[in-house]
Amino acid sequence: MLCFCQGQEGHDMEYLEKSAAHTDHLFASRHSHRKACPIDYKQPEDLCPSLATIEKVAAAKIALELQYKTMLHDASPREQRRRSFERELVLQERSYAQCYVARKLWYIEESDHTRQTRALKTTSMARSREKSISIPGFEEVRVLGRGSFGTVRLIAKQLEDRSVQCYNSGGFDGNVTAQDNSMPKFYALKVLRKSGMLKNCQEGHVRAERDFLVHAESACSPWIVSLFGAFQDNTSLYLIMEFMVGGDFLGVLLREGVLHEDIAR
């Protein structure tokens, strides 16, 4: 019985040694195959994406940001304006009939504003192939200044339109403030090159500037210039703002250096 157990144990040890040798052979063959067929891998710093790829990536980032911001936000801009309007009605202590008429007029004006915004957003596909900028009812007077990403131009209104309704190219995210005949005659047109902003990762700053001007316009702040429209074409972004005589604050700082207290006031 003892001899039988010793023979069985020796057979098991021989089987284990053969299995280990077979495993080592398989591992060695796979390892040698990996050495013979290396993977051509490029480091991230060796990649040089094209301008079109950079624009698509930036557009995807902005689209996702706006989508989640809309989903997580408590109320839409239209709802916020409605709440502000209702608060004004409560403070004015109007009668029920007066409130009804005021609400009806507000909904008509809000519908006109939404319709104009939609028209601004849908003009890009129809006129995106045109190379030069052409704003109906406006003409360029002169260049006010030049910056690292574009220029600021003085434009004049030719026609007595009710509002800025149609541009050469598409809406810049759609939230454009609708204006009426109280708009001034001259405007400052800020032209920003897309290529320069994308290469320097400044698209977020431009969007923040535009959003700030839109919110300031809705708040009727007397200390911030008004934004009348924003649109874009294949190469540039355009912001139509209120023209302020002597409003080049950067030029004043470059000329004066340090402003005295009376001038700052």
TrEMBL record:
- SUPFAM superfamilies for the chain: Protein kinase-like (PK-like)
Q: Which residues form the Protein kinase domain?
A: 138-265
Taxonomically, which superkingdom?
Answer: Eukaryota
Q: Which reaction does it catalyse?
A: L-threonyl-[protein] + ATP = O-phospho-L-threonyl-[protein] + ADP + H(+); L-seryl-[protein] + ATP = O-phospho-L-seryl-[protein] + ADP + H(+)
A single GO BP: intracellular signal transduction
Keywords, comma-separated and alphabetical: ATP-binding, Kinase, Nucleotide-binding, Serine/threonine-protein kinase, Transferase
On whether Nuclease is a keyword of this UniProt record, the answer is no
Recorded hits in Gene3D superfamilies, A to Z, give: Phosphorylase Kinase, domain 1
| Keyword Calcium annotated | no
Q: What is the protein's given name?
A: non-specific serine/threonine protein kinase
Q: Which organism is it from?
A: Peltaster fructicola
